[in-house]
Automatic annotation (TrEMBL):
Gene3D superfamilies in the cross-refs: Metal-dependent hydrolases, Urease, subunit C, domain 1
PANTHER family attached to this UniProt entry: COLLAPSIN RESPONSE MEDIATOR PROTEIN (PTHR11647:SF1), HYDRANTOINASE/DIHYDROPYRIMIDINASE FAMILY MEMBER (PTHR11647)
Organism name: Amycolatopsis rubida
Lineage per the UniProt record: Bacteria, Bacillati, Actinomycetota, Actinomycetes, Pseudonocardiales
Protein name: Amidohydrolase family protein
Origin: domain of life: Bacteria
Amino acid sequence: MRTLLRGGRVIDPATGFDGTADVLVSDGEVIAVGPGLPSADDQVEIDVAGYIVGPGFIDLHSHVHTIAGQRLQAMDGVTTALDLEAGLMPVERAYAEAAAAGRPLHYGFSASWGSARAKVLAGIEPDANINTGLSVLGNPAWQRSSSKTELAAWLSLVEGELAAGALGVGVLLGYAPASDPAEFLALAKLAKQAEAPTYTHVRELVEVDPGTPADGSEEIAIVAAETGAAMHHCHVNSTSGRHIDRVLGALESGRSAGSRVTVEAYPYGAGSTAVGAAFISPERLKMKGLNPSRVILLETGERIADEGRLLQVRAETPGAPCILEFLDEEDPVDRALLHQALAFPDSIVASDAMPVYWQNGANESTEWPLPPGGATHPRTAGTFSKSLRLMVREAGVWTWLEAFRRCSYLPARVLDEVAPGARSKGRLNVGADADIVILDPATITDAATYFDPTRPAVGVRHLFVAGTAVVRDGQLLTDAFPGQPLRGEPR
């Protein structure tokens, strides 16, 4: 069955088209775009006049590996949700388990640098499970530098994961901030040889830790220049904090000199990770000018009272997910820093979406609406709609064409070399994948808050994944599981 989207404002960031047109979809592909396309008995026709029709959002940084989490992202306009910063290992198992469970959205994974190091340096067997991964983050055994033999061993594991279809290499460098910079350089050389990107949570900035082996923002640009590797800087807003001016300046200088560095950001002043992460130690918080009360345990809502309690939680449950408030979104100065990261030329919107947890220990639900009491970061449900509200509707910094370039087109281009399947995404012309979002430009907004984080976004009227409706008339379709794997092409 074909679908005709009639009379919407069609935006194609690949060609720069922004105008009223019809879009005809068949067999998961856009087969015609233009005004006055003919009606036919063998097609469903949907009136989308007054709405914006564009390529679905591609999230390069999503840690939701569940139906529940993907449904929240669908209501936020996402059609492809990829875990590239951390990745999962073994990647074959990650793909197989997602396929077996079914997914509303397209999915994919990078090779996990952290898991490969943990296996070699600490003997921790990876199981392609994010909750296991969170528990490992606070384990110091894998955070040290490697011997030559160990380095060769885990590089070999990463190479095997790339051969198995991983979408590049996820590098949680900020979780092993004292590791030898030579290892990062060796990894980048491997990635360049495989024509695969890296996606890095950079180590600390020199302003935060003068003893860091390398400045986080400068290291990624220098290594990209030395190796020619394509290197993606994850959530530049959260790793830079109040030093965003200097960081963006360093990245722009590196890019002007030829470094292949791409940048992403999200519109929130708080991050989320495991409480045992290296940068949530009391000492590291002090370096950032933060105190333990800026840490909130996700599943219980407990705000950490003092250093003693933080040390206790880190020792007893290092994998417990938490929220770290690094900027105050109510402060106009801090809010301007977040806007600056989003406004940076070619900055990509990416959510860093987190799993949803319930107090009974569950992290999956096939109910919709989701059961009450679910805990996650509000960015899981609202990153893209909040970015559109802030940058298009309120600030007018982005046009709608620019918004789709940053949310759809640019993230797809990060993947072009490693994944041929990405080349038909992020665009809305003939031959493009029928991954399409139709949104109301007057009402699109986030609804999730830190106190009610699973409230779906508002304003996505329709969402098609591979030509199949996942959202229709603003309502999620609970029987829709059209998501397909996006995999790397072995070199």
